[in-house]
Amino acid sequence: MQFRDRREAGKALAKELAFLKGRPDVVILAIPRGGVVIGYQVAQELGLPLDVYITRKIGAPYNPELALGAVASDGSVVLDDDLVQRLGVSSDFIDREIEQQQKEIQRRLGKYRGAREPTDLAGKTVVLVDDGVATGATTLVTIRALKKQPLARLILAIPVGPPDTIARLSTEADQVVCLSTPEPFWAVGAFYLVFDQTSDEEVTQLLRASERRVEEAVQRER
């Protein structure tokens, strides 16, 4: 399966999540940046609120796209110990990378949310959305960080990912909805015709638009 772009993938994902439509106890959480485009479409189609949960990859030396692990906004860290050992990566490098990614997480939170408080997730069904997974490192740390909170249920919803990664994540989330699990799997972007960079500005605009939609819906119900 190949998607035209993230918007098309988000609409397709929303169809698979139709059982959640309009439920007051459900929140869509998107992993920036590209996941927010997906999340916006899902939230819009299902009439649900949208927020972000920021997780950053810990990149390998000389190959930052290779994930040694990831760090979440609550400080949670997941490392691929086998990969770290195989590459001979020092603890000093990992500590510096974690510190750098934590600073980037705080920068993004300030830009995306401003003064707005994060959504209260207690007792909620959380749908965690991204534009796809490869190794699953960032997704794994996000799931584990979120499950520290008193959620009712955690659903991972993604358009595409390799079968082995999806199987592993299925043991961590309460439910996984994945539209396509191709094999062989090269990279997430290979399954989109258009996989352009999502900017901070677009993320902010989509979050504001979703917030306005929810506020307008509340006013209509009064």
Explain this structure to me?
With 222 residues, this protein is an alpha/beta fold. The chain has a domain at 6-55 and 118-221: 3-Layer(aba) Sandwich (Rossmann fold). Helices cover 42% and strands 21% of the residues. It has 7 helices and 8 strands, in the order αβαββββααβαβαβα. A 5-stranded parallel sheet has the order 2-1-6-7-8, sandwiched between helices. A 3-stranded antiparallel sheet has the order 3-4-5. Helix 5 (137-146) links the parallel strand 6 (125-129) and strand 7 (153-160). The radius of gyration is 17 Å and the shape is globular. It starts with 5 loop residues before the first helix and ends with a helix. The relative contact order is 0.19. The mean pLDDT is 92.
Percent helix? 40-55%
The N- to C-terminal Cα distance equals: 43 Å
Gross morphology: globular
Oligomer: single chain
Strand order of the largest sheet: 2-1-6-7-8
Supply the number of helical segments.
Answer: 7
CATH class of the domain at 6-55 and 118-221: Alpha Beta
- How much of the polypeptide forms β-strand, as a percent range? 15-25%
User: Any idea of the CATH topology of the domain at 6-55 and 118-221?
Assistant: Rossmann fold
The assigned CATH architecture of the domain at 6-55 and 118-221 is 3-Layer(aba) Sandwich
What about the largest sheet? 5 strands, parallel
The topology string of helices and strands comes to HEHEEEEHHEHEHEH
Report the uncertain regions: none
Mean pLDDT: 92
Determine Rg (CA atoms, Å): 17 Å
Query: Which structural category fits the helices and strands?
Result: alpha/beta
Question: How many strands?
Answer: 8
